[in-house]
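Title: Prediction job returns without error message
Component: structure pipeline
Severity: low
Priority: P3
Assignee: unassigned

Description:
Job completed but the reporter wants confirmation the result is attached to the right record. Sequence as submitted:
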Amino acid sequence: MTENQDIKIDSKLISLKMNKILLIGDSITQCGSDPSMLGWAASLQHHYIRKLEIVNKGLSGYNTGWVEPLMDGFLDYCELGDSRIVLTIIMLGTNDSVHPSVNSLQAVDVEAYKANLTEICGKALQRGQVLLVTPPPANQHPERTLERTRRYKDAAMQVAHDLSIPCLDTWHALLGDGSNLDKIWDHYYDGVHFNTKGNKFFYDTLIDKIYITWPEMNVVNLKQKYPEWNEVGQLNLLVHPKRSN
């Protein structure tokens, strides 16, 4: 075997390049990595294991005004080593929508929210595909109310329309025709964050949306990263052959 052949085999074995799905959000996204709650982000990571890397940049308590300046750094990080971002999933607005008379620090006016969200999505669009997810229904009186959160859901949908990007309407997914609000609260543990049932529901809804919008992202259409174990064994014999005593 020539020296060049050895290098080619070694490169196949040790290459760390992995394309990314980037998650941008607040505590609903951060807590999505909690395995004790069957976190939706953890389930997404398992779903795409060895095919795409899931990078969770959910920041508990953050609003769009605080996330927007961080976007360039998040995006650059995901493209290190010649990797590329195949999809950015953005779900923000739960903290922006808090009532300013109760929590003026996190609250963001709905028009400023739209402007911030447009900037965030615009930066992500320069690197790859984007899925905008509306802030889910939230009811944590008096800080968060359904009436206020609905305004930010509508604003997110308007941003998606203006930018011509796919949007996942969590309200429609959870409520259907919206006639029975009581049926959704068993998906939460505090009126804001998903419990095990909510995480499972959101994960299933998210995967369906991804598959319908981008069939090429179905795991059956993605190549597995790194050789199978039996292939590695054969290559190791070629790269490091046993020597007789």
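Comment from assignee: result matches the submitted record. Residues 1-10 have pLDDT under 50 and may be disordered.
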